[in-house]
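Case study B.
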Amino acid sequence: MKDLNHTTIVPRAINWNRIQDDKDLEVWNRLTVNFWLPEKVPLSNDVQSWATLTDVERTLTIRVLTGLTLLDTIQNTVGAPSLLPDAQTPHEEAVLTNIAFMEAVHARSYSSIFSTLCSTKEVDEAFRWSEENPHLQSKSRLILQEYNAAADPNKRKIASVFLESFLFYSGFYLPMYWSSRAKLTNTADLIRLIIRDEAIHGYYIGYKFQRATELMSETERAALKDFAFALMFDLYEIEAQYTAELYDDLGLTEDVKAFLHYNANKALQNLGYEALFPAQACEVNPAILAALSPDSENHDFFSGSGSSYVIGKAVATEDEDWDF
Amino acid sequence: MTGLVYYSSVSGNTARLVRSLGMNADRIPVRPAEPMPSPERPFVLICPTFADGAGRGAVPKQVIRFLNRPANRALLQGVIGAGNRNFGATFALSAKVIAAKCNVPVLYRFEMAGTEIDIARIREGLNKFWSAECSTMV
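Model:
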């Protein structure tokens, strides 16, 4: 511990009964209730399914999961901790340490998949591949550059939201694809838990970005927006190449790209920005959307012809019964 | 005439969608101390979801308070749900919960602040819906 004698800062205990920003408590509650560990998912039920994949499909899957491990490792050890000095409330610091720890759980859970399904040799090869793959390395470096202590705190938040809400999706696509074909369904269940966590992380960091920038001048905000869109362009460029290299053999590259565009727009929305990619570039394969969220087909507006159109059953309610 | 009521938390996704719609709408306030809207004609509610993994807490507390007033409930015609497909089965869950409780249809669901397609569909849908409502009401 640093010698505190020479500083005038008073060490303060966190008081959860005095909340400055309600979002901190709301997100803390969501994250802690959603806590999970990979042991909870019966991955060994995927052993038979794994055996049905071709060599090419297996190598692709191990590489994709290794790439995801790298992103989670970065977010665990550098990304989330780098946001701590800029936290506006003590409760935000607590949420960020939760985020950091959950990233460690995510990074650890890919190794659980590997130890259940793959040989040590295959896995070692994939980790070596991840250190040598130019696209994976350059996107990691681009993000780490913004996490650097000297960087602008708001740019750190932008980079963090892009990692949480955009960069993961070239990887998340594959387990959703397998799941839509009834393969590796337990692995997909585990990935869905990660997707759920990352969605809250991206939402929360994006919200803190909006709060931090709302009092800035128009000029400062415009400069940050320019930076964000430029960084998104650079990352997208790399992701497109990474995607082609991984998915060309299976003929899935264009399908994955639509998913990237869709998620890039969602990442920008987390920062309060408008979409970058036009709607026709974001038409995600319905099977992938269904793998993400069952029963998520959109309704045919007001016509009632959508298969999941919901009319509530009459529920006799008393006024005191409105406890949702 | 369009009656539109919405809730948006401080992160503002639903508020951004409503701004893009360019329609008059009343906001249910984030803070309990602020006055609740009291609609005087039939309305559609746009509501985001903040559920945990098990679906608990899907409907924001302030929306519950608003719907606890029988007069408000009586005028509710339908609900549009906001959410994120990344939350799997709980995507836009609050709209389903409200629909079941109030016996009204889920009219549409969208993610976050909506896409240009969502905005066009909601605008068109609401206009059709309200003209149909007017022709059935004397």
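Confidence is low (pLDDT under 50) at residues 305-309 of chain A. The remaining cases will be described in the next quarterly update.
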